């Protein structure tokens, strides 16, 4: 579990003070995957670097695994850090060491018994699906394989918490999905708590249980994914919902975008609309996705007939989001 209370971080740059974090408070519960999303410069990296004390906060309190890391003396902080794993956008592997030797590195630092190292490395390689690459060098690996090594290395000292700093930002969409699936699998199998920072909504959609939006060093919104996508006033709901390119149409019909979620996504809503309101519905574009526990669909449709407004009202009363284009 991670608790961040009123965290502030200023950087001094020549005669200027830059406020990177301006009173951030958040709690990541044990066993959950928590995403922090924000634009470039929002303070995401600073936040994650403060949590493992790579960066010293200006003020505020951080508790990780029940220990207040902000007040630990150096020796104890080193020990506490062993219970916090970290993975990076550019993997940070040692190029002169093989995969197995990279994973051995943190074990050497903690003086892990020599006779047990080989077994532990094999166990970690199997956990990330890279058994056959033990003797390869990083230059011989794909980006996804490099990140798997990064994950194995981060898990070597059996941390309860994993911090992920844009871990999939350098990867193509397919590899991103496979790394996110691995993280979700490790989260479930090991009970690993994951805090990740990202600028990719796709990452939030695919694996996060909860999300916080960081802007100019402050959290402007947080909640579960399920909560946020169903809240019309949510700032990131629109970005989380399925995307598609709206088509311009020139007919007389009314063009609307309908967002279906929860139970409504599984009902034949449009068919019953056509039957009950004597209207014509023409589907122009659409997208259906699983976000969190929900199936969410977005459709652009053209509706024509005498009872169009009554039909749209009916959809809204069913809890669907309806926007005129
Ligand atoms: N070492 C530093 N010295 C001075 N200013 C810094 C330092 N690190 C970050 N900053 C500033 O703090 C603010 C937050 O930066 P940070 O890197 O945490 O944001 P970010 O959300 O991670 O951005 P990005 O996605 O571009 O990495 C920015 O204004 C940045 O310029």
Quick tags:
single chain; 325 residues; alpha/beta; Rossmann fold; Alpha-Beta Plaits; 2 domains; six-stranded mixed β-sheet; four-stranded antiparallel β-sheet; 11 helices; 33% helix; binds adenosine-5'-triphosphate; membrane; translocase; ABC_transporter-like_CS
3D structure, described in words:
Belongs to the ABC transporter superfamily. It is elongated, with a radius of gyration of 24 Å. It has 325 residues and is an alpha/beta fold. The protein contains 11 helices and 14 strands. Helices cover 33% and strands 31% of the residues. The chain has helices spanning 44-51, 74-81, 99-109, 114-127, 143-155, 173-190, 201-207, 225-230, 237-240, 269-277, 308-317, and strands spanning 2-13, 16-28, 33-37, 59-64, 67-68, 84-88, 161-165, 193-198, 210-215, 218-224, 254-260, 280-291, 294-304, 321-324. The protein folds into 2 domains: 2-238, Rossmann fold, CATH 3.40.50.300; 243-324, ACT domain (Alpha-Beta Plaits, 2-Layer Sandwich), CATH 3.30.70.260. Adenosine-5'-triphosphate is lined by residues 11, 13, 18, 20, 38, 40-46, 199. Residues 11, 13, 18, 20, 38, 40-46, 199 line the site of adenosine-5'-triphosphate (ATP).
